[in-house]
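Changelog-adjacent note: as of this version, every example in the card shows the full chain rather than a window. The one below runs 184 residues end to end.
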Amino acid sequence: MAKERIILGIDPGTNIMGYGLIKQTGNKINLITMGVLKLGQYQNHSLKLKKIFERTLGLIEQYKPDELAIEAPFFGKNVQSMLKLGRAQGVAMAAGLYKDIPIFEYSPKKIKQSITGKGGASKEQVAAMLKNILLFKELPTYLDATDGLAAAVCHFFQGDNPGTEKSYDSWKGFIKDNPGRLKK
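Full-length structure tokens:
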């Protein structure tokens, strides 16, 4: 019997969160859905985080993914932006952990490289390659959707060996690997 699994990919963001779901059957993948959660209308950061948690939980309850692949925050110059992005990633991860779904974290460079062969590929290049791989007709209005989808496809390409990227199936494991992220 061919291996089957559903992978939820998330590109966290505090203005737009992208997501994509794929189904693997053996060595083939098919698109289930992709989309975005728009958060720009919310001024309160805590409310944005609540909406990210609720949407991620809703996707998990609707599609029952076996694994969650998420893009890791990249290191930028704006500390406030990084903090907000890290929180967005954290609440999406919390939804997966709440539902006992293993989480796999990939750097933006690793995701781009696995999809296009180039770690510095643009959003448009990633989207175009995904369109060819998954045979969907139109690119979405917001490329954050294909960024979320790219995380899922990157995870599929890792096979049964996700490599050196991090995976967590509990908060205990995450905290053990990231002691510097805790405030005392």
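Structural remarks: The chain has six helices and six strands.
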